[in-house]
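Case study.
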Amino acid sequence: MAALSGGVAPWCRGWLPALQFVRRGSKAVTRHWKAMHFQRQKLMAVTEYLAPRPAVPPRCLAPRKETVEEDNGYVQLLRRQVEEVFRDNRMIAVCQFNSMPGEDVVLMRHYLRKHNIEVKFVLNEIIRPVLSQSKYKNLLPLFVARNILLVSRETKVKEMLRVLKGVPQINLLGACIDDTILSRQGVENFAKLPSLEATQGQTVGALALLPSQTSSLLQRGSAHLTALLDQHISRLQAAETGSPAEPAPAQSSEAH
Amino acid sequence: MASRIRVVLRPVKSIVVRFCPFESNAESTRKFLGCIHHKNIQATNRNCEVTADVRHDGSEPLIDVMFADGERLIMKGANLTTIEMLTALGSRCNAKELKEEQKSKKKSP
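After joint prediction, the assembly is written out as follows.
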């Protein structure tokens, strides 16, 4: 409440209001949040921005086709690498990779490299779409959890199994050798097979055995006949030599 | 992440994990195997043998845990999640550890 100081005609003196409405002395621009004056609040509310409404509501227009997100270049590169791997290599073994100390990983890679087997770390989210569109669909359930691929242009399965036996943290799940999907048991059986040259030699030998017997089979009848005839002739000759010997002593005895 | 579950493998003698990778129900078992091989868990017991038995006969995934006191825990992982299996194993291991500590405390004084 403003108390009027002065007497009868305060406007003559140019009075200053005794009570001033500045309580704490903060200015207009402060570092702390300051409530707006009520009149200013009203002004701001009245002059608030109202967005212009479109003439045609958007739901009446045709729906926009959502653009499919394209993969970034790195993902495309990894996909191309995976496709190359599956195209160029004869043997692709899928193994589960449990965490191993780094030196062991390096050693294992070194031993496998000696047999021309490369170790490739793969990400499931990249390899799954690649496989689902290729002919290797049956390998899809293998790619869960951390995996590695052991790829090679030759099929040195025995050496690979020997190296993997020394590494207990890597478990062989399956393999695709010459476009044939094999389980772990199948891979072990494949390792026990003899080499391709030995099998080819065995096949050729087995096939050649029968024709070699054919000629002897065909000749057996006539050979048997000739043997019998030879025996017969020898018996007849023996009989002839025996019978001229008997009449000859008979004649000689008659002559005497 | 399942590696945050602390499992103390001291009372465990061996773990055999059997699964068929071409089946679709082997996912949690394979992840369990991956978690068990983590260095934190392996560091608790270097003598624990973890073996993976990979088959192709359509059998269910199985985890066979042999404890040092002769007890056996068999977990059929076809309908279990990795975290459930890890917590089950972890709780049993902790219980055994507590028992061992209590026994050693009783013996020492």
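Observations recorded in class. Residues 1-6, 252-256 of chain A have pLDDT under 50 and may be disordered. The first helix of chain A runs from residue 10 to 13. We will return to this complex in the next lecture.
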